[in-house]
Amino acid sequence: MGRDLPWRRSRDPYAIWISEIMLQQTQVKTVLPYFDRWMALFPTVAVLAAADQQQVLKAWEGLGYYSRARNLHRTAQVLVQAFGGQFPKELDPVLKLPGIGRTTAGGILSAAFNLPVPILDGNVKRVIARLVALEVPPGEAIDRLWGISERLVPKDRGRDFNQAFMDLGATVCTPKHPDCPSCPWRTDCQAYAQGVQTQVPKAVVRSPLPHKRIAVLMAVNGAGEVLIIQRPQAGLLAGLWDFPRWRVGR
DNA sequence: AAGTCGGGGCG
DNA sequence: CGCCCAGACTT
After folding, report:
1. Which bases of chain C come closer than 7 Å to a protein CB?
2. Which of A162, A161, A200 is CA-nearest to residue A180?
3. How far apart are CA A170 and CA A86, in angstroms?
4. May I ask the CATH architecture of the domain A116-206?
5. Which three-class secondary structure state does DSSP give residue A137?
6. CA of A130 to C1' of B10 (A)
7. pLDDT tens digits for range A151-179
8. From the C1' of C4, which residue's alpha carbon is nearest?
C-alpha cells in the first residue's frame, strides 16, 4: 500500500538523493512541487555540480534549512570530481558526503540499490518506540532503536521495507491519532497491547523557550523598494551582528 | 548533550 | 499557540 511518489518511480540514485535531502524535517506535501522543479532545472549530478550557487539557492528558496542546498551543491561537485559522477554503493563513503547522515544514507542506499541498510527517522523512531512500548524518550535509547531497525530490515528487500516502515509512521502510526485497527503490526505492538499507544513515545522534558524583545528596521524608498541584505553562508541571528557597518546597541 | 537551522501543516 | 515533520552539523 505504498504511497505513489515521484522519486519512488525512479531508481536513479541522483533523484533519490535529492528527494531524501528535501525530505529532511520537511513533509512530503511540501516537497512535491520543489522536487519536480529541481529535476527539470538540474536533471543530472553533472548539471548540478556545474551550476552557480545562487541558482541552486534560488531553486531551494522557501524550503528552509538552506545549508541543505549548499551541501547538495558541494556533494554534487565531490561526486563528479572524486567518484566519476557515480553515487557510491557502500555506506562508509556515503556517510562522508556533506549533508548525508546515517538515516539519509540508509534511505538512499536502500531505495536506489535495494541494500539492507537501516534507517531511523522521526517516523521509524515512533513506530519502534510503540512496537516495544519504550519506557524512555527515544533520544535516550538511540542505540537500541538503531539495533532494532537493523535487525528488522530484510537482507533482500531493503527498498520495500524501509519505505513501508516510513509510510506506516506517516499514514497509520501517526503522532496524535494512530489508526491501530488498520495497522499490520497491531498484533505485534506492545504499546497497543497495553493500550498506551498515544502515550508512547514519551515526550522529552524541554525547558521553556525564552522570550526575547528585539527591534526591527525595514528600509523602504519612495518607489516602494525594500532594502535586502543577503545573510552570511553560515549563521542567521548569530552572524547578523557581524555584518560590516552594522552596529548593535542596547 | 545542547544549540542551530526554517517553513509549513495541524489541532 | 505549541508541536511535529524522510536530520545534519557544530559547539
Report:
1. 2-9
2. A200
3. 31
4. Orthogonal Bundle (1.10)
5. coil
6. 22
7. 999 999 999 999 999 999 988 999 888 99
8. A175
